[in-house]
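Researcher: I've been going back and forth with a colleague about how HDOD domain-containing protein might be arranged in three dimensions. Neither of us has a model we trust, so I'd like an independent prediction. The organism is Pseudomonas benzenivorans, in case that matters for your notes. Sequence below.
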Amino acid sequence: MQAADSDYSIYRQLVSQLMSDEEQLPSLPTLTLEIRRALAMPEEVNIPRLAGLIGQDPALSALLVKYASSPLLRTRVTPKTLEDVLRVLGMQQVDRVVMMHSIKSLFTLHSAGHKQLFLAAWHRLTLQGSICAFLARQVGRIPADHVVLASLLSEVGDLAVLSAFKDGHLPPSPTRYAELCRAYGRSLGVILLKKWAVDEEYVQIVREVDNWSLQRVRQLELLDLVNLGRYHVLAGDAERPPLASLAAYAKLIAPYNELALDGRLCLVEQHWDDIQTLAATLR
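Model: Here is an independent structure prediction for HDOD domain-containing protein. You can compare it with whatever you and your colleague have in mind.
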């Protein structure tokens, strides 16, 4: 037990050092900043010029094409070129997909152990985001891509924890990593999003995610969809309250609020294949 406590103390010290030195945290890539600046000035940037800028990142281009062709959008005609994709998605949606791509590409993996922890976390986050997006598409009100990005950013601090384990430091075990995320993930997420200068709405999501009882407005809002998605990926969490007790659940109307035998939403269980397909486009 003493050795385990010492082990955790070392990891905790590394994460604390990371939090006190913002420069150690990843910055958005230069190309991402250029693309986002261009997207913020649509009257000055035409589609061909924007496509040329995005085309400098083949992985981002591929993600945009996959996303535009995903079941989430259900476009009548599949876009064939990057310019077609930009026209289908629109500037605001492209901006959000650019941020989704950047999140995954920001964290340097220093070893097979780092990669294993990252991929497990990313797999869960993309599944969570896809559940959120699917629910958003079904119930309306909030754009699905807005919800996906909010969901991914809600736990970006957990990915940032991995930034502490570099310079030859061995990554923690999955159990230790989960403990560190619970202790520091939220604070790191807020620090990181402020560094990236994202909308305050996303920062507030980081602060309030997992607050199952919070109800600020009567209508279903962004936080509610993020919490519903998160709830469904925490299937093995013994501390998770019944779904029917969530403030977000109380805002769902029939038939969206029907529950399956395992306590999850029927809507999610019945469309699990569609959700998995969407998650695959984000990985």
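Researcher: What would you highlight for our discussion?
Model: I'd start with this: The two ends are 38 Å apart (CA to CA). After that, consider the following. The first helix runs from residue 2 to 20.
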